[in-house]
Amino acid sequence: MANSTIDSEGFVTVAKKKSVKTRRFLNNCPLTTHETESVELDTCLKNILKAKRDVESSSFFNSFITFLAGITKELDKSIAEIVCFGLGHISSCKAAQHQLGLLLLLEEQFHCPVEVFDPVFCSVEENVIKELKLKLSPTNCEGKRKPVLSGGCTLFFFPHCPKELSNNLLYTNWNPRHIEHCILYSNSFEKIRLDIPFRFLKSYHYLLQSQEIVEEVPVPNIFHFPDIFNDLSLHYFPSHLRSNVQSPFWESPEPNYPASETEIVGNG
Ligand SMILES: C[S@@+](CC[C@H](N)C(=O)[O-])C[C@H]1O[C@@H](n2cnc3c(N)ncnc32)[C@H](O)[C@@H]1O
């Protein structure tokens, strides 16, 4: 069994056999439920709206919208829905507040429903989501969520989330009819494939195989706080890549992750 400790930045250090250690980014705001409950709803909302203005006035936001517009133009689909996983503690965490700020700006831009889920939300944070008129998802789907199939596509927004979420999302939509309606804003698939040794990626079949069909657009990390939108990319699945693969490619066994390496919060 691996031993885990959480340091002051919210990184989990997993000590494996002997001195081998890996550092997993679990959540950069390790607050207890008790601490987050004590934060007032009004203060939270004020901080989130301030973060939203901060993102809105940034050249990062302009460049994000420009990249996204390029993708929707190429796919010839508008954004009909946004699904967000893993914002983290929006009551207290600067990264989560700015990411939520971006999400609110995208809602205004596309006038579409936005659904949000994070298993760490405390009741104040759930009330913040409701107060902002976003839909709080009642269930933990572990990333196994289908997109809208008519009237456009779904933007899945899950910055700095466990790679099981990406792999599960790909697994659930691993067929040409569903995947063409998905755009993902998440940790760069390319960076995951390059940074993590292959032996640790064996359970992530869909993340590995997606390189045949995915177009990845890195969104430059030009926001003034360097640790909020870093290492994130937009991913989509253009028809010329989808049509290159043969039918066995789309076979989709259910993923199964080694318990000692799993970062996702399951619904069990
Ligand atoms: C490393 S934190 C990222 C937080 C924030 N987005 C950031 O960039 O700092 C990963 C987040 O994924 C969330 N998470 C874990 N399992 C999840 C699940 N099944 N569905 C949605 N979010 C999940 C965690 O609760 C945590 O808030």
Automatic annotation (TrEMBL):
Residues spanning the membrane: none
Signal sequence annotation: none
Entry-linked Pfam families: SRR1 (PF07985)
Domain SRR1-like: start-end pairs: 73-236
GO cellular component, one term: nucleus
InterPro entries reported for this sequence: SRR1-like, SRR1L
Family: Belongs to the SRR1 family.
The protein's name: SRR1-like domain-containing protein
Organism, scientific name: Daphnia sinensis
Taxon lineage: Eukaryota, Metazoa, Ecdysozoa, Arthropoda, Crustacea
